Amino acid sequence: MEFLRAVGRLKGLPRTGWLEAGVEEPESVAEHSYRAAILAMVLADLQGLDAEKTMRMALLHDVAEGEMGDLTPEQKRRRGPAHSRDEVEAVDRILSTLPETLAERYRIVWEEYREGTSPEAETATQADKLEMLLQALEYEEAGIDPSRLDRFWRTRVEGGPTSEIAKALMRIRRGRAVPSV
Amino acid sequence: MEFLRAVGRLKGLPRTGWLEAGVEEPESVAEHSYRAAILAMVLADLQGLDAEKTMRMALLHDVAEGEMGDLTPEQKRRRGPAHSRDEVEAVDRILSTLPETLAERYRIVWEEYREGTSPEAETATQADKLEMLLQALEYEEAGIDPSRLDRFWRTRVEGGPTSEIAKALMRIRRGRAVPSV
Hints:
Helix content of chain A: 55-70%
Oligomer: homodimer
């Protein structure tokens, strides 16, 4: 039950990157994770990968934030190795309230995602980034100043269908948005 | 892309049941679907079912709402067979922007969920309901008048681990909440 409550806290956790970009009442981590999991499913299916593992990774990739809050890449860099250690401990605590076989299974999946050591892990990571780019595009369309969203578009997305989708998003952006200097 | 945009609309769609119960700024359909998918994974794993199919069902179960909005069970009953027809059409429209093999695959999964014709479909349905009960409990804990949430607790949840969790939630509720009469 405590596992499900920790997951539930992601509903009330706004994504820090959007707050910093000046989006009022931005999406929650749960909302991001939902579309990221859908994207993970689609990208895995398009490439004939193990969709089950890819979806598990996308669903679990941000659970540590239920304890730690949502840190931006910059904040993580600044905290250095301490951040990684804290993150592992948070995930272990959150998973520890599940039956042991499940906790172990989910921990392995989460670790593999984090290490990026399989095509499924790479695909779940790409889904995470693509979801963010699509959301950035939607915030622009909703009237957020494009120049405040520029840094999100410097995200690198690579590989097959993922980079195709990223390129399509960028084309939409260039075609429509006021040049943001 | 249009498929992902339709999925994205679930982020901005508040769950109607909570609005009717007087919850201000309730969770979105995307937030509900996120935890429902996690629960679907856990319940499928606990029972040794096909977790891949169960997660797909949970992720896709509410996509039609991206076009139709979130209707309560009462509203659906009132609209009768017209509702089912509209829902199928909405799902077909949303999926039609995907590559055909994926659209067909997701349509079959969505249909199986809707018909409830497999243990995985039953489990995804139970995950949907359990997620709602846990959220009801959390809203009570956050100060929403329990009497306004009573009707959610009349939801029937059956079968193995699902009913165990539902019973545990009800025990927590009885143990803590002010009698709601």
